[in-house]
Amino acid sequence: MPADSVHHTGHQAVGLVLSGGGAKGIAHIAVIKALEENDIPIDYIAGTSMGAVVGGLYAAGYTPDEMMALIKSEGFADWSTGKIDPDYLYYFDREPSSPAMVKVNLGSSGNGRPVSVLPTSLINPLPMNFAFMDLFAAYTAQCGGDFDRLFVPLRTVTSDVYSKHKIVLSHGSLGDAVRASMSFPLVFRPIEIDSVLVYDGGIYDNYPFNVMRTDFAPDIMIGSNVSGPDKKPQQNNVLQQLEDMIIQNNDYDMPADWGVSINVPVRMYGVLDFDKADTIYAIGYRAAMEMMDSIKTRVTTRIPSEVRQIRRMAFKAATPYVRFDSVSVEGGTSRQNEFIRYLFTHNTPDTFGIKRARDSYYRAITPGKLENLVPQAVYDDSTGMFDLRLKANVKNNFQVAAGGYVSTSTSSMLYFSGGYNTLSFNSLTTSANIWLGQSYQAALIDARFSLLTHIPSALRFQAVASRQKFHESDELFFQDNIPIFVTDTELFGRISYVMSAGRPAKIEFGVGAGLIKNRFFPTSETDVRSSLRDHTYRHLVEGHLAYEYNTLDNINYPTSGSHINIRLTGATGRYRFEPAGTDRASDISRHTVIGQAEVKATHYLPSGVKLL
């Protein structure tokens, strides 16, 4: 019921206070479940961090069972850990794999504004950005940005670390209010509210019973507290150490005459232990039931489940359907903004829904050229439609990377690369890559030019030069392996036309030319100090047609998904052999034609174990 009517109906007003605590806050859902089963009313909610997430969902009409289903879903696991579901990515646009361990963007972004060269959070914010709009946009529209008009009036708490105080949010975007309250420093990327960069509310008020008293003044409070005063940090738990350093001295002692505080014993769990949801929920339910007699003694009003269900159904029935009729973009150059907008509006009817918006969003972030992309759905009362507003943070054009491969053999090598990338209707993606090792050296120049076609397509050029040495034995990498019995040198260039074949697949066809040169001793009895070597040369021209489908969840160590590669290759060339110590007249030469068809298919069956 509305915030201003609770005290005027003879109803005992009850405020629910939910503390912060990361995954420990799953216990709040169980507390709400126990209260509902015992017909205890919940008239107001104030929450911090995970308490704001649970409070925001409940205020939006979610039942405890619906909240648990969301928390345990793969989608929640993905965005809460920063993983992008490969089913959403466009394989045609994905960055090629490389041995890079560290990547840094340099130079200036398209709009000239600085972009950090280091990650701003441990958790990739991109999946979370869209998820929060999807979860809360309709309810922001329904309440008109006034949190007192939600299914249950709500307050969330966030922190202004510059001015060193908490901020209580009672209006605006519900998704932003929840997101801001849970933006734990370094773990989740902060957002701006009213031009202020805000962080996790637990920094200054992790158990907001004072907020409840100030904003709602209920007759009685019920608090669900999953945190508590700081304790000695564990040496091997970095997140706990970070939590202890960041969270200030908070007051967890709600006065007894204000209400009942349920202290749920889940402090042994970590901020990101969402995989232990069932266990944390069970502990929370047990703790709430142990306090139920005390709660019933203090709370005399009852709300039958049928009444609550009717109110919830009425609230949900009034929730608008999210459908967009306009798109605007800011943050990049005018050309970059126009291109991102094009991804959402081309080949679409005048209006589109969340599914189309999600497809376009992931199409925009797949190439890896955006540092961040924040969508916001703004409701227009006059049309019943939403305006999709996107704020883009484009990466700097220049990128450098380093990595390598370490083994106990001569195969060890270092890897370096540099690239220049643009974001526009005809985007250019280039890289120069170098592999340096004792036995193997290589260089690759790769350039891709995107074409503005009905079906996404691109021209790709590759040039490769490599040399590999083969020794008598494969000893440890730090040993000087002499003699070198075979030296293999390869030069190759290719130009291809690549086009999308739906979200998970691409088709490629092209031509290439190359040279393979081998240098080796004529016989095993040859004096290895001799400079005489036999030589073979293979001059090749090839054409290829390939289809590739890929939904693997990880390039190197997949646990789910499929990979299908079908390739047809035809090559023609000339082979020439030059014996050591002879003139060209004794060369052996012949012409060859080669055809090859290759089909590879891999599918990973669910194992029941999910690696995050």
Please give a quick description of this structure:
By secondary structure, the chain is of the alpha+beta class.
Q: So what's the overall shape?
A: elongated
Weakly predicted, low-confidence segments: 1-5
The N- to C-terminal Cα distance equals 41 Å
Radius of gyration: 31 Å
Biggest sheet record: 11 strands, antiparallel
Residue-averaged pLDDT, rounded?
87
What share of residues are in beta strands?
Answer: 35-45%
> How many DSSP helices?
13
Give the spatial strand order of the biggest sheet. 3-14-15-16-17-18-19-20-21-22-23
> Pairing-aware structural class of the strands and helices?
alpha+beta
Helix % is 10-25%
What is the tally of beta strands?
A: 23
Describe the structure in your own words.
The two termini are 41 Å apart. The model is unreliable at 1-5 (pLDDT under 50). The chain has helices at 26-37, 50-59, 64-71, 74-81, 126-143, 174-181, 209-215, 238-246, 277-290, 292-298, 305-317, 334-345, 354-365, and strands at 14-18, 44-48, 100-106, 154-160, 165-169, 191-193, 196-200, 220-225, 259-263, 323-330, 352-353, 370-380, 385-394, 398-405, 413-421, 428-437, 440-451, 457-471, 484-500, 505-520, 534-550, 561-578, 588-604. It has an eleven-stranded antiparallel β-sheet, with no helix packed on it. Strands 1, 2, 4, 5, 6, 7, 8 and 9 form an eight-stranded mixed β-sheet that branches. The chain is α+β, with helices and mostly antiparallel strands and 612 residues long.
